[in-house]
Write a structure and sequence with these properties.
By secondary structure, the protein is mainly alpha-helical. 64% of the residues lie in helices and 0% in strands. The two termini are 21 Å apart. The model has no long low-confidence stretch (mean pLDDT 79).
Length: 81
């Protein structure tokens, strides 16, 4: 499903039908939970990439800085943006 706000609007519309089964709400909540899991995994990969970048950093001058090198060369990226 789309955005969080979109999901909330659908949930509120469904709440007006108190006699309806919860399966639709469960599906929306499950979809949001899956999106949260995907975001957490993306953030873990991002953290790993940043940690690797810092580990390979030599603390020389900016002109020879590994951090700048990695940030400017997308082939060096460990994860998608």
């Amino acid at each position: 499903m789309g955005s969080l706000m979109e999901s909330v609007k659908v949930m509120l519309r469904l709440s007006r039908h108190a006699g309806s089964v919860c399966a639709d709400l469960d599906g929306l909540a499950q979809g949001r939970l899956a999106e949260v899991g995907e975001r957490i995994e993306w953030l873990r990969r991002l953290r790993g990439g940043r940690a690797a970048m810092l580990e390979s950093h030599r603390h020389g001058t900016v002109g020879e800085c590994r951090i700048i090198e990695v940030l400017s060369d997308h082939d060096e990226c460990a994860t998608e943006h």
